[in-house]
Amino acid sequence: MASWFEAPLWKMRIYASLREEVDPSTDRHYFRQRSVGYTGDLSFWKTPSPEPELAPLLIERLSMPLAPDDSICLAASTLAARIKSYFDPQQTLFVAILRAGVPLAAWLRKMLPGAEAVATSLFVGLGIDQTALAAIRADYPDRKIVFVDGWTGKGGVANELRRLEAGPLAVLSDPWGQAEFRGTRDDIFSPSACFTGPTTLGFSRTFHSDDNKPFAAYRFPDELLQASFVESWLASCPETREDTLQDKSEFRIKHESPLRLHSNEVCRALINSNPETLLFAESDSIVRAKYEFLLALAEAQKVPQRFNVSELDELNAQVACTLRLSC
After folding, report:
1. Which residues does the UniProt record annotate as the domain Cysteine protease StiP N-terminal (predicted)?
2. How far apart are CA 287 and CA 264, in angstroms?
């Protein structure tokens, strides 16, 4: 059995095993309920999360390229320069963590000529897909692996990689300083957080089924793909700049919080979990200018919002959400 397949829009090897084709809007019994949360029970990873349909506004906006001075583009330029100062692109393999790492790895591959990029899975508690990782190392024996994710939240991916001594990890936005390489410590929202499996990948979130096989994924119908999302993202790829942004001062959270924190993590909760209320540190008018995509997702799902939430300052967070989970 092949250890990988190619994501058609990204032209990137995905180290996972493909299962039968299902339709996420009708074959809902293949997916877990949005209200089911991870509690430490590893059986949670045996079923993929659901896939929402995107509102017309989001489809229109995600099809538009980013401006060259967009904060995401500037952070990516800084990140690429930092990686280049440590690793020769000709000897580097970016291993994207499915799914948020794929868009960033595609940029880094383009920004650092000679680098290669593939993708595989990592689950908190299970760690990296070890069968897939062994295949990646066998296929690219002379490459230095740099893991790539879109951003960090509370550090689930970063902590798993540290536990396995498998790093380093590179991300765009790293508010709490969890990754070895980052574009910025500012919590900047990335439109790629809105990308879903049906619209950009053609397959579901992966799930664990057999310790001796790569993690699996269901195929999605090709007609669900929105090629314009990926085309616009790739067209927005910035150049690598030698000048880098300065990191914020060191910050570590003072206490645990039940909230889902930071804008991209909140977006993912709107994609595949069950938010109860969105919380913003800033005023209504500022939030509507900065977080258009989050509000569009929230309003489509009738999730209420609160503004000027001062408690978020203690968490070094601008955006958070509470979750309505059954377990």
Report:
1. 71-212
2. 14
Other Cβ atoms less than 10 A from the Cβ of 69: the count is 8
What's the pTM value of the predicted model, to 2 decimals? 0.94
Show the domain range for 13. Answer: 5-235
Same domain? 231 vs 265: no
241 is a domain residue: no
User: The CATH number of the domain where 292 resides is what?
Assistant: 3.30.1330.30
Tell me: do 216 and 300 sit in the same domain. Answer: no
Q: Which residues pair with 120 in a beta bridge?
A: 97
Can you tell me whether residue 25 is helix, strand or coil?
coil
Please, are residues 237 and 111 in contact by the beta-carbon 8 Å criterion?
Answer: yes
Tokens read off for 31? 């997916």
Burial 223-255, CB ≥16 within 10 A → b, else e: ebbbebbbebbbebbbebeeeebeeeeeeeeee
Beta strands (DSSP E) in the chain are 5-7, 12-14, 17-21, 92-97, 116-120, 122-123, 127-128, 144-148, 169-173, 181-184, 216-219, 260-261, 275-280, 305-306, 319-323
Specify whether 225 is located in the same domain as 287: no
More confident residue, 72 or 316: 72
Residue 246 maps to a domain: no
Q: Is the peptide bond before 99 cis (omega within 30 degrees of 0)?
A: yes
Do 20 and 123 belong together in one domain?
yes
Do 169 and 304 fall into the same domain? Answer: no
Checking if the pLDDT of 15 tops 50, the result is: yes
Domain of residue 102, CATH code: 3.40.50
pLDDT tens for 76-106 read 999 999 999 999 999 999 999 999 999 999 9
Burial category of 258 from C-beta neighbours within 10 Å (exposed 0-12, middle 13-18, buried 19 and up): exposed
